[in-house]
Design a protein that fits this description.
alpha/beta; six-stranded parallel β-sheet; two-stranded parallel sheet; globular
């Protein structure tokens, strides 16, 4: 989360804030959209095409911007003239220029991954002027307090029915019986959108 942002997520915690969910049709982006909306943020999502725009909108994004068309930074700035407060990023190397073009002063780029593996090059002067906050995140080293808080806050969102899944909620679920686990791996490697689930239920994998 942002240095000057709320320490915990709850309804109203992000009122007045603008959150940019990179790749809103993916599983991480989907969760970002839903949690940010639950906390009261205005949510913008970047996507790569119309079908992914449909999924991000179904997840709850207020605005969707196709980063492959036109001037995505200008489109985001039109929605958020003062800039984005928090960017939830999954492809930092590919998206950093866009993120910095739309980030407000003292905004935060929180990155969970670097899909595509493109190297990250920082313009120090640009980031100094922005007073950019970079928050790299993986649960294993986030610390016990942050993990406990996250578990409590996500559980609260689940109780509020704020994290539904499925095609109608923007996150398709692809199920495979245990015996077809290789097919599940191939589907993942082919870049299918959605969550891939392997069902280990005895009845299903015995069938």
């Amino acid at each position: 989360m942002a240095e000057d942002g709320p320490r915990r997520l709850r309804p109203g915690a992000l009122n007045g804030r603008v959150v940019l969910a990179a790749g809103g049709a993916g599983a991480v982006g989907h969760a970002v959209i839903q949690l940010a909306r639950w906390a009261g943020a205005i949510v913008i999502s970047t996507v790569s095409g119309p079908e992914k725009a449909r999924l991000a909108t179904a997840a709850g994004a207020h605005h969707v911007v196709n980063y492959r068309e036109g001037d995505p930074a200008a489109a985001i700035r039109e929605i958020a003239p003062d800039g984005v407060d928090i960017v939830a990023e999954v492809a930092l190397g590919a998206n950093l220029a866009l993120d910095l073009a739309v980030l407000r002063t003292r905004g935060t780029i929180s990155t969970y991954a670097n899909d595509g593996g493109k190297p990250v090059h920082l313009d120090v002067a640009q980031n100094m002027v922005l007073n950019t906050r970079f928050q790299f995140l993986v649960l294993y080293t986030a610390g016990p307090e942050a993990r406990a808080a996250a578990a409590e806050d996500v559980a609260a969102a689940v109780r509020d029915n704020a994290l539904p899944v499925g095609e109608q909620h923007g996150l398709p679920l692809l199920r495979f019986p245990l015996a077809h686990t290789p097919d599940a791996h191939r589907t993942l490697e082919n870049g299918t959108t959605g969550k891939i689930l392997v069902d280990v239920n005895e009845h299903d994998h015995a069938a």
